[in-house]
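Regression check, GDP-alpha-D-glucose case 756:
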Amino acid sequence: MYKKRTIIVSNRLPIRIERKNNELIFIPSEGGLATGLGSVYKSDANIWIGWPGIIPLNKEEEEIITQQLAEHNLIPVFLTENELKGYYEGFSNEVLWPVFHYRPSYAEYRTTDWETYQSVNLKFCHVVEQQQVQEKDEVWIHDYQLMLLPQLVRKSYPRIAIGYFQHIPFPNDEIFRSIPWRNELLNGLLGADLIGFHTFNDTQHFLNSCAHILGLSVQNNCLHTDGRSIFTEVYPMGIDFEKFSQLANSESIQARAKCIKDHYKNQKIILSIDRLDYSKGIIERLLAYENLLVTYPELKEQVLLYMIVVPSRDHVAQYKQLLDEIDRTVGHINAVYGTNEWTPIAYFYNSFPLEELSSLYVAADICLITSLRDGMNLVCKEYIACKENTDGVLILSELAGAAKELTQAIQINPNATDQVTEAIHTALYMPIIEQRKRLDDSIAIVKKFNVRHWVRLFFNRLREIKIFQQNEMARKINMHTRESILDQYNRASRRLFFLDYDGTLIGFQNDPAAAIPNQSLYETLNLLQENDGSQVVIISGRPHETLDSWFSNEQYYLVAEHGAWSNYPTHKWHSNNVLSTRWKIPVKHIMAKYANNTAGSVIEEKSYSLAWHYRKAQPGLGQLRASELVESLRYLLQQHGLQLLMGDKVIEVKNSELNKGKAALHIVNNYKPDFIFAIGDDATDEDMFLELPAEAITIKVGNKKSAAQFYVDTQQEAIQLIEYFAYNRKLLSPPLQPQSENEEIIQEENNEMQVE
Ligand code: GDG
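Current build output:
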């Protein structure tokens, strides 16, 4: 039996290749992602695809690298200098990185970089395709360099499981909107089945972007597009806790930590470690430290800021400027406040081995994280993991993703210089007992939510989603269900069709009055109706006057206002006029308040119901006001025995005695059909699905939670399905020739079916 493979794809492979004396040296990465995914990509036939971090000198070297990497289950994507310039340095780091870290003014929108970003994402996709991938496999794509890859892979493998994880923040939709290619980027991500972020805010920003930029509808954490449900989840990334904890407790690290402490004896060590980047708040940190020395001069020779800045992108103008500013500020502080015996800042623009970092974590009295924006920030978690047996205080920017988990840290806003200064002061004097309590609470979190846990959560959810999608597919009307329903239709002699109007027979319009039936709809309905023993019933929430003006010349029965009016069985309208309408006065009063304060919303009054429509209101504001209105109406509903319906951009209140279910059942009981077909898109149609006999064929338009047996994705599919019956039913007379466009589609599909 085929064993499912896992394919990991990220910009960089978890390995560094160095060229020394004409020899290639392969150094495995110690990064968190590499450790977390180590057990995954190193086992079975699983692989990790990515850029190896080196441009081969020639084909021969490329071969050697490929072979060597294959031994470690690594597959290289070789990139040229130009590709790296446009895709990585250009588009990834000069558009996506600044915009996603809330620095849109740093973005350089160059079309050529965007084109290279697209072609390199495609190149990654080709490498995926070369790996004999099967639909049963799963692909996990990482980070902002590969935002287009999920959709590219989806095109090649429509049913494969694809996960995507974003390691950096996702900005709010107004900021994201500023990118000229924002639609393409969102559509790229939507190829995935599961899209993971570090924080809840990130997921909300992404979902808002899909809703406000692409116009998709969002249900909780789920989006539905291209017939697939796509889920977003919050999975804060963890670290390899055991590795850091073991290192911290090892003799060599403890000895080195003691050495560091002895070297800076009588000084409290404030540690900071980050890559050179404007998102890390390095200047803000220096200003707060200077402020500390000014505000508390007694700390002279008592504190030390041990600041490691890891070199990064320093040929880019903004980074170079930042580096110069750091140099100047550090120089200024050391020159102005330092003494012969004391340098206030020990500054290193360098990277260090992991052992040295661990020793510093153990030795440091304070770890100071001042990120202005940070997806997660792993340094603070590593500090915590090294503190099982030594004390210390974590000061953590509330703008780092980690702040959502490490609530026991002293949290700061890095722009509030005085607050950061006070936080350092508080940390310096924090009683040991309090330090211990805070550390232990944080250790429990970092230990439990470690990187392996993160990987497990992600894969478990991805697999769950695939099962969910398969079940969904089983409910979705496909060619086979359609044929089997047609077969039941042909074998029946008294058929009833309950057809909802808005959102089922006709698509939604901004102006409800514009949603009038067109010629092709009349033709389809007449064909359905014409067959012996077939009866169409249009069952709608619309006023009876409206249905009457559209359909009074036809043979169909009409049920209006959710059952308040009906022309069954005599084709003459009659109403359920025993019902009270006293409730309308207070409900209308409340709805009027919302119609007045929400531009684009209106009240519609019908005999036994009131509806507040907000289709033309500002997106977002309409939803907000709708939930406020529901809240305001709550007590009236109970008092008057009313039912509230939350429809598509409409809140409707009606007598609860009235519903489409009762109205439909009344007709069924009289008509005694041997085939019942009911289709609708709205909350009101649910009453119908629930009340109709179990053998009825019930179909929901739109893949929402429903009591219906089956669903179709869109209104267009709903009408195509109805047309299918109209044009394919068995007739005693010869079949009719197709007339409408839709009909041709159906005919084409039929031909396809025959080929199959
Ligand atoms: C992105 C997001 C998110 C640092 N200096 C040295 C060194 N490091 C290691 C640290 C830590 C890692 O690098 C830095 O991780 P961060 O999380 O702080 O930041 P980014 O690299 O920007 O990563 C970030 C992360 O993705 C994961 O999703 O948390 O928000 O920006 O592990 O220890 N390691 C060694 N020498 C150094 O000098 N060996």
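Comparison notes: The two ends are 27 Å apart (CA to CA). The pocket of GDP-alpha-D-glucose is lined by residues 30, 32, 167-168, 237, 273, 275, 310, 351-354, 357, 374-379, 382 (CB under 6 Å). No diff flagged against the previous build.
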